[in-house]
Design goal:
- With 73 residues, the protein is an alpha+beta fold.
- The protein has 1 helix and 3 strands; from the N terminus they run E-H-E-E.
- It has a 3-stranded antiparallel β-sheet with strand order 1-3-2.
- The longest helix is centred in the middle third of the chain and has 12 residues.
- The protein is flat, with a radius of gyration of 13 Å.
- The termini are far apart.
- The relative contact order is 0.30.
Length: 73
C-alpha cells in the first residue's frame, strides 16, 4: 500500500485546523481513536488505513476543525 502524502499548508490554513495521524496495532483500534475524536470536534474522517512495508501496525490520518464542536448524530 502506498504511504501517506505529506501534510501541506492547505491542511492547516487557519488556527483551529489540525491533521491527526494515528498509529495503531490494527485497523479497529485506529478507527476507534478516530471515532473518539469525532465525538468532540468536526472531523473529515479517513475511510481506510495504510500500512508501510517493514513498519509495525497501521496509520490513519484525519482532519479536525477544532473551531466546531461535533454535531450529535
Amino acid at each position: 500500500m502506498r504511504g501517506m502524502r505529506p501534510i501541506t499548508e492547505a491542511h492547516v490554513t487557519e488556527p483551529g485546523f489540525a491533521v491527526v495521524e494515528v498509529a495503531a496495532a490494527d485497523e479497529q483500534t485506529a478507527f476507534a481513536v478516530q471515532e473518539l475524536l469525532a465525538t468532540q470536534w468536526a472531523i473529515a474522517p479517513a475511510d481506510r488505513t495504510t500500512h508501510e512495508p517493514g513498519e509495525p501496525g497501521v496509520r490513519l490520518r484525519c482532519h479536525l476543525d477544532l473551531r466546531q464542536q461535533a454535531t450529535p448524530a
